[in-house]
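pls design
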């Protein structure tokens, strides 16, 4: 072989997927086998050995907690007391089948509903389900509760130590804070370029802005790095990414300044303040403390520009003025959200509307997240109901028929039930094939070896290494085949076993997968795809109402007060949350489930909801009480027509996403470019007219992106 030893070693390395699987397999095997053998052969406690092994397997093999080993170890620390509670409840409720079923229904729902907390709670939920399932079967022996708790605790502690210190993982991706910092830094560069001639961005800079903006999309960020939790810092970091995407888009669309107006001299000052604020924000996100002076300066120059002299300004100048103010507002949002993401509740007070979460404590934020999803339109609620009903039904069947090793049936139900009937059906078919192959191998092994536990004890660790390596990489068929052999070798050491153990395993998997298939068919069988369409359509209808209400109030004027939010804000925000959760699940489902005609840009749809919220608040919520005069007749009529047009576009898009029986087959065009009022310059139109038109034009651009042919 040619090349240096280092080059030969590099060529011999495993593919990344196998390398990661090997590292995790070594950790779970060592933790599970060490606890199992310690209690079974060291202390002659089959109960503690069983719980030590299954605790490690449940939280590392069955659960899919994202992140590096140390990140998973940190997630597992609070899991230990949760496992104590679940084992205790399961032990005492196993006295009767009906009590065990009722507990399964409640516990199954609660643990599945934990997915609202983000990828880490969602990943830990299946393992926690098993920690209730395992003790919820006969015999009813509450006197063994101590052994169960000790065994599970030792298994979890060994797993935490292995995850934290053994074979460390490579960092799965760039942290979201760094992605946001890069976007903010590039936005500062864009603002600097736009502050001087030729007042445009080069193709290279625009392409980089698009790439950095796209890099902040959740679908392109590793699960462990997504800011999806309900806490202050996670919400603020997600807000930072969204505001950064908006800022980059506003900078890319900023028109060049017109010739002539003296007011143009203020624009470079604002853009330079935007540049400094973005650079300060990038430094803060990277851990370097800043004084906050750049944001204060931007606030000052933004206020001066907004309140400056207006007479004599040309329509082109007023449009540029409105666009620059939108850039400044987006930069301020990025800066404030980033500071909250870094400092949490210690950050300076922010505007109560956009940053409503900044002063809330964790229990309040968790309650808002949970209560917001407590309804059948939430995909998290749908998934929790589906899995809870399936597990309760499986526990009922196992209890009434007294299936041997009935918890295997619930384990099959838990692991094979998917969010769509189609995916469940294909998964069950492959799983049954794998289980059959594994059962045949196990039956032959048990028939040949008999009751010689020494053989099983020697074969278990290497078999676990292979099982937990191939299963995650090769798919559910391999996983079921290998796991069938693993559990057979485990139970063959706990009690004398015959070849019929393989028969029981196959029977339980068939029964459990049948239950999962039935409930996958009956309870929201199409998964998040249809719910995503419905929730986005609902969000757009709510946004249309907000647009009409906002333009109406702009036209009529009246007293304005610095309230928390504009009218309709809360309803639109809730609809947006539902749409975002449906999109999150939609992204997790197999790509082949997408329909051929599904060409909507869902990210544009979600951004349009945020743009509607932010624009309405900016136009209607002043920093201090004031009385706004009504718009002159022509500008009032024009802004009303434009608002109606945008609202109509939103309603047309919503009808296309969620059609009913009499929805027109040929969709009506929703574009803004054929609507002359967007370019209208009515005499006497003040700045707030052009600010509203700028906002409405950006919303119509969002509608065009939603219905474009680019996914």
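designed seq:
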């Amino acid at each position: 072989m040619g090349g240096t030893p280092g080059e030969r070693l590099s060529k011999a390395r495993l593919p990344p997927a196998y390398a990661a699987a090997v590292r995790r397999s070594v950790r779970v095997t060592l933790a599970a086998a060490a606890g199992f053998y310690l209690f079974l052969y060291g202390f002659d406690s089959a109960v503690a050995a069983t719980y030590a092994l299954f605790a490690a397997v449940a939280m590392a093999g069955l659960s899919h907690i994202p992140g590096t080993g140390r990140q998973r170890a940190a997630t597992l620390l609070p899991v230990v007391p949760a496992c104590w509670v679940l084992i205790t409840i399961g032990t005492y409720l196993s006295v009767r089948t009906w009590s065990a079923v009722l507990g399964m229904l409640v516990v199954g729902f609660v643990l599945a509903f934990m997915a609202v907390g983000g990828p880490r709670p969602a990943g830990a939920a299946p393992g926690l389900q098993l920690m209730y399932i395992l003790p919820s079967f006969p015999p009813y022996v509450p006197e063994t509760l101590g052994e169960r708790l000790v065994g599970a605790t030792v298994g979890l502690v060994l797993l935490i130590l292995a995850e934290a210190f053994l074979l460390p993982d490579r960092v799965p991706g760039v942290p979201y804070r760094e992605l946001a910092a890069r976007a903010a830094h590039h936005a500062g560069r864009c603002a600097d370029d736009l502050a001087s001639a030729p007042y445009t961005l080069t193709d290279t800079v625009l392409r980089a802005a698009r790439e950095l903006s796209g890099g902040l999309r959740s679908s392109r960020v590793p699960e462990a790095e997504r800011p999806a939790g309900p806490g202050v810092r996670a919400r603020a970091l997600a807000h930072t990414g969204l505001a950064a995407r908006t800022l980059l888009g506003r900078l890319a669309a900023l028109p060049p300044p017109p010739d002539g107006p003296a007011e143009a001299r203020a624009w470079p000052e604002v853009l330079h303040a935007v540049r400094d604020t973005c650079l300060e924000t990038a430094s803060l996100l990277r851990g370097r403390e800043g004084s906050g002076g750049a944001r204060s300066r931007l606030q000052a120059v933004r206020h001066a520009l907004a309140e400056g002299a207006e007479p004599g300004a040309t329509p082109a100048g007023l449009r540029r003025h409105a666009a620059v103010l939108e850039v400044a507002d987006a930069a301020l949002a990025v800066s404030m959200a980033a500071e909250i993401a870094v400092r949490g509740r210690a950050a300076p007070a922010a505007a109560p509307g956009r940053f409503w979460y900044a002063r809330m404590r964790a229990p309040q934020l968790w309650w808002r997240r949970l209560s917001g999803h407590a309804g059948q339109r939430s995909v998290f609620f749908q998934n929790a109901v589906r899995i809870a009903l399936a597990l309760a039904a499986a526990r009922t069947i196992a209890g009434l028929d007294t299936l041997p090793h009935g918890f295997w049936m619930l384990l099959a139900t838990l692991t094979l039930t998917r969010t769509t009937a189609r995916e469940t059906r294909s998964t069950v078919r492959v799983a049954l094939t794998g289980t059959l192959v594994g059962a045949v191998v196990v039956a032959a092994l048990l028939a040949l070896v008999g009751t010689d536990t020494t053989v099983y004890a020697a074969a278990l660790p290497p078999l676990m290494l292979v099982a937990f390596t191939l299963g995650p990489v090769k798919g559910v068929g391999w996983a079921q085949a290998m796991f069938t052999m693993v559990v057979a070798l485990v139970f063959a050491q706990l009690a004398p076993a015959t070849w019929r153990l393989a028969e029981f395993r196959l029977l339980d998997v068939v029964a459990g997968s049948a239950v999962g298939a039935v409930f996958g068919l009956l309870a929201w069988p199409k998964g998040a795809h249809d719910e995503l369409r419905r929730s986005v359509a609902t969000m757009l209808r709510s946004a249309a109402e907000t647009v009409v209400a906002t333009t109406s109030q702009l036209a009529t004027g009246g007293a304005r007060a610095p309230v928390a939010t504009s009218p309709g804000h809360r309803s639109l925000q809730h609809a947006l949350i539902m749409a975002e959760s449906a999109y999150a699940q939609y992204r997790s489902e197999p790509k082949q489930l997408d329909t051929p005609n599904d060409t909507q840009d869902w990210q544009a749809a979600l951004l349009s909801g945020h743009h509607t919220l932010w624009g309405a608040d900016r136009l209607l919520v002043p920093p201090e009480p004031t009385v706004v005069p009504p718009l002159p007749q022509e500008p009032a009529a024009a802004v009303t027509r434009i608002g109606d047009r945008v609202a109509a576009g939103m309603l047309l898009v919503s009808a296309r996403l969620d059609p009913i029986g009499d929805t027109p087959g040929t969709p009506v065009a929703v574009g803004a470019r054929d609507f002359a009022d967007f370019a209208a310059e009515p005499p006497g139109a003040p700045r707030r007219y052009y600010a509203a038109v700028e906002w409405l034009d950006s919303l119509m651009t969002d509608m065009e992106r939603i219905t474009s042919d680019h996914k």
